[in-house]
TrEMBL record:
InterPro entries reported in the protein's UniProt record: DGCcoil, Diguanylate_Cyclase, GGDEF_dom, Nucleotide_cyclase, Rev_trsase/Diguanyl_cyclase
Coiled-coil stretches noted in the UniProt entry, renumbered to this chain: 320-354
Keywords of this entry: Coiled coil
EC number: 2.7.7.65
Protein name: diguanylate cyclase
Highest classification ranks of the organism: Bacteria, Pseudomonadati, Pseudomonadota, Gammaproteobacteria, Chromatiales
Amino acid sequence: MDSEQSLKQQLATAVKARKQLEDTYESQFTILTQFVARLSLVCKGIDVELDNRLARLRQQLSNGTDLEKLLPQIDATSEHLKTLDTKQQQEVKKAQLTISEAGKLLQKQRGLPNQLRRDLRDLLSRVEEPAPTIHAYMPHLTHLTELYQLALNAKQSMELEDISDNSRYERICRQISVELTNLLSELAFEGAHAKAIDAIRQSLLGELSIEKLLEACLRTIEIIISSINEERQSAQHFLLKLNDALTSVQNSLVSSLKSTNNIRDKMALLNQQIEQQISVLSHETKSATSLEQLQRLVTDKLNTLSMSLKDKEALEKQEREILLSSVKEMDARLKELEEEAKQFKKRLAEQKFRSLQDALTELPNRAAFDERYELELKRSRRYNTPLSIVLADVDHFKNINDSYGHSAGDKTLKVIARALKQSMREADFIARYGGEEFILLFPETPLEQLETPLNILREKIKRIPFKFKDTNVPISISFGATQLKPTDEGREAFDRADEALYEAKRQGRDQVILKS
Ligand SMILES: Nc1nc2c(ncn2[C@@H]2O[C@H](COP(=O)(O)OP(=O)(O)OP(=O)(O)O)[C@@H](O)[C@H]2O)c(=O)[nH]1
């Protein structure tokens, strides 16, 4: 009974132990299954064969296959893992090489920001360090991609700057062209020079290339120099003539002086002879013993004396004639000189006038405006009277040039200039400021009094029947006006008028904007 009892107990213990063993095995199996499942998930995508092998293992584990049967599978998988490891080592090296080459290539790019260069150097030194797996390169790769992005951005903005450089360059070209056009309008020459200046002006109206601009500048300089030379030659010619005339006057004076000196000598001698004859006569008359002797003596001496007096008279006449002819000669030379000086003065006056006049519209030019503006500023400040300044600009004038040619544009400017000039009072002033822009000064006129007249003027210009190539072309003009303020300095008032004009253009053109 006891032994049966103990056998039963042993069996129960054995069953319990087996149950425990089975439980342990099952839980280890579950852990292994889970591990393989996780491992296959982590490794998924690294290698197709590994993926397949792990999938099969996972399947078998979940089917509860005997572990013994799994061993060859596990061996083959670990063999495959070994070859994968070698392959990975090669890939690590390849990744290192590729990243470092890409980094070095970026380093060679010009114009990278300094910080980017420093970051890149830092990254390259870290990439050179040995890495256990290819994954270690992932952050480097990400960093390198970021640096590439930054470098691309930097390059792009540099290119954009280049483009804006280009537009800045174009703007400068346009400015130079406008300045040169203005300068040309102030250079009023005659004849061949005028034609050459006009040709340059026309060339500036077309497309602007730097070559054309340079050519125009050089040609202008050439014309100015040649005109200065001509002026110098003309002044030299005048001075030479003056010198000639003075030399000839001097020569004539010297020769007449010499001749009169000569005559004076002869006269002195004659006077001496006459005195001598008189003293001989008086001496001899004293010693005369008879009346007859005295009479003969006096008659002889009187004859000699009368001859000497005739000689004296002749000499005096000769002297007078010499002096007269020399005075006549001098007078003729002086008259010539006077005529020459008159011509020269006239040329100077014309030149001064022409240098202040715009050749195309015959209005005062910008230089004339500058002179007048200064004067009106002073006047307005001294007498505390209002001064209004108006800028006028023909609207879309470029279209006229482009559609109907520059000579049509020129004619338009002339007509508009005349119309503007005709509508102004005697005391007002108008100048062509340059291109299709005019400047008007209204002394003793407050700004508010200008609105109506300027609008009338604007309407008047609009009503001019311009006709090009049988087409009626309406032309309008915009005005920007302001009044001089006591606080205005330098060009402040002018700039305000310019702002008003800009505003008129911005608001659709063909209008008057007052800016006080
Ligand atoms: N025919 C001719 N054209 C000139 C003269 N001076 C300047 N121009 C031209 O006038 C034009 C002015 O053009 P923009 O400054 O663009 O102005 P716009 O076409 O008048 O247009 P908005 O002023 O904006 O209304 C340019 O094409 C110049 O070449 C000139 O003496 N004669």
